[in-house]
Specification:
This is Putative acetyltransferase. By secondary structure, the protein is α+β, with helices and mostly antiparallel strands. The chain has a single domain, classed as 3-Layer(aba) Sandwich (Aminopeptidase), CATH 3.40.630.30. A hairpin with an 8-residue loop joins strand 2 and strand 3.
């Protein structure tokens, strides 16, 4: 089985990315990961994993994870966060807009991904 991205970073003690999780009663209900190795923009981080179990949605977990990753990114001198959303996932697109992320047409060259970004400064 191949080594997963964040698994590799943890094993290496790398600072090139961060992963956070939320537990309720010892059950993992949400995760969010950011990489600082993105080539999309200079001095940017890229959210590459964001997931909250359906039974734990609408509790503020996703918002807390995203805000935490924004703070962690700032602490690592990251100026902008980017993320990709599938065009068919209008719910996620709207949710990220509610967090202040904006569609970036220049980054969205690929037809299957809509990139959004947020300035952290």
């Amino acid at each position: 089985m191949p080594t997963l991205y964040f698994e590799r970073l943890i094993k290496e003690g790398s600072t090139k990315g961060k992963m956070a999780g939320v537990f309720i009663n010892a059950e993992l209900v949400g995760i969010c990961g950011v990489t600082f190795e993105t080539t999309l923009l200079p001095d940017a981080g890229e959210i590459i994993q964001m997931y909250v179990k359906p039974t734990s949605q609408h509790l503020g977990i996703g918002r807390a994870l995203m805000r935490f990753m924004e703070t962690v990114s700032l602490d690592c001198s990251i100026k902008t966060l980017v993320l990709g959303v599938e065009p068919s996932n209008k719910t996620a697109f709207g949710w990220y807009q509610g967090l202040g992320y904006r569609f970036d047409q220049v980054l969205s060259k690929e037809a299957n991904v809509q990139y959004m970004k947020l300035s952290l400064l």
